[in-house]
Amino acid sequence: MSAASYVQSILTTLKQRDPNQPEFFEAASALLKTITPVLEKHPEYMKANILGRIVEPERAIQFAIPWQDDKGQIQINRGFRVQFNSAIGPYKGGLRLHPSVNLSIVKFLGFEQIFKNSLTTLPIGGAKGGADFDPKGKSNAEVMRFCQSFMTELSKYIGPDLDVPAGDIGVGAREIGYLYGQYKRLKGAQRGVLTGKGLSYGGSLARTEATGYGLIYYTDELLKANGESLAGKRAVISGAGNVAIYATQKAEELGVKVITVSDSNGYIVDENGIDVAVVKQIKEVERGRIKAYADRVADSHYYEGSVWDADLQYDLALPCATQNEIDGTQAARFKAAGVIAVAEGANMPSDPEAITAYTDAGILYGPAKAANAGGVAVSALEMSQNSRRLSDSFEKVDGQLHDIMQHIFKASADAAAEYGMAGDYEAGANIAGFLKVADAMYYQGMKVYLDIN
Ligand code: GLU
User: Fold this and answer.
1) Residue 349 in 3-state DSSP?
2) Is-same-fold flag (59-190; 210-370)?
3) CA 306/CA 268 separation, integer angstroms
4) Full-model pTM
5) Which CATH homologous superfamily contains domain 59-190?
6) CA 197–ligand 1 middle distance (angstroms)
7) In the predicted model, is pLDDT for residue 447 greater than 90?
8) Which of 80, 112, 211, 256 is 20 to 30 A from 40 (CA-CA)?
């Protein structure tokens, strides 16, 4: 069988088996389609059916999360942990709390995490989890009771050498604190079982900033490799969560004018450059909506709808909100808007038509699994600090993050060139991430059961 028909057969089976998992299918087919040249060079991976095995989670857990709201009513949510691949290290990946969470979303995120984590060069496997709980409008006490119930079940499946969850959309320092406290109560031990912890109980400096800072370090490399630089550029950033906030902060520090931030209702345009302190106050302290920015900052404006439909001129598109936030029609307008590069802070924010539109327009494209790997990279550094029972300085961790992002860009660019696709940083990231995992799976052999009859 040729490599191309092998890839096709895996995708066909995948679609037949799980026809109702569109996000997972989108992520899997985007990766598999760029892997064909690797299989031509490594037929042993086909023989060992590495692709058939890599698209199947090693374990997918679904559980009930009952909790009591402030009115005394009993609520029920659905929780997930998908432990996708442990070939190169313990399962690692965030927990997402959002009403859209279902098995397809968690599988797409877990699948992406395998290759992202591999790209960091650190020894971490891929996983993801979460629940269809909506933290919006909930009191602290409700969030705490929910997190405690979530961890009561999750604690059975995680551990410092087994699976180490962290934050994602809807899970920040507050939620990690409640989850960690409950784990400790249940197990009677302090263990480095979550990352993104508070600094007073084993967290790492620079973890909060890591995904956003890492995105800008990556974008810097992407531009430099193509004869451009960050200074003086105008950027549109979507989102107003942890990734967007720290991407804005680092971009502005390096001379970029960030003109937007957004949430699921609308977006702010501030031609003077987003005032990140105001965004932090609204989102991190008040847990409010981004609309409030326009009431506080002179000459800024709030508009309803998607920021990707805004009529603006800018150089850099940095989607930091959520999956499939940019479609083909929106992406087709980027060239005329002046966009030279897209780098993804969110996971899979560009749908397949959008990615095709970037390529057709000659726009540089930095895919999520490379561009946003800084968060999980610093999570792995947090795990290492916990094992050593030491904490490193902000400068040390930030320096390591910078080195890792430079490495990720170079490894992706080199892999793309080696396989005859120079400048295709998506194919390069997929190939570089895949090779290490495939190699580890190949040399570890398969799980087989002895016939005892
Ligand atoms: N949720 C983040 C991501 O998408 C971070 C995961 C982690 O730190 O484990 O990579």
Assistant:
1) coil
2) yes
3) 10
4) 0.97
5) Leucine Dehydrogenase, chain A, domain 1 (3.40.50.10860)
6) 13
7) no
8) 112
Q: Which of 92, 128, 283, 369 is catalytic?
A: 128
CATH topology of domain 1-56+424-453: Glutamate Dehydrogenase; Chain A, domain 3 (1.10.285)
How are beta strands 91-97 and 257-262 bridged, if at all?
unpaired
Task: State the Cα angle at 437 between 432 and 438, rounded to 5°.
Answer: 95
Domain 210-370 of CATH type 3.30.499.10? no
Main-chain phi, psi angles of 128, to 5 degrees = -160, 160
Percent of the chain with pLDDT over 70: 99
User: What residues flank ligand 1, with Cβ below 6 Å?
Assistant: 92-94, 166, 168, 195, 347, 375-376, 379
How many CA atoms lie less than 13 Å away from 102 in the CB half-sphere?
A: 7
- Sign of the C-alpha dihedral, residues 153, 156, 157, 159? positive
Domain residue spans of the chain: 1-56+424-453, 59-190, 210-370
pLDDT digits (tens, 9 = 90+) for 240-261: 999 999 999 999 999 999 999 9
- For the CA of 116, the closest atom of ligand 1 is 10
What confidence tier does 453 reach under pLDDT thresholds 50, 70, 90?
low
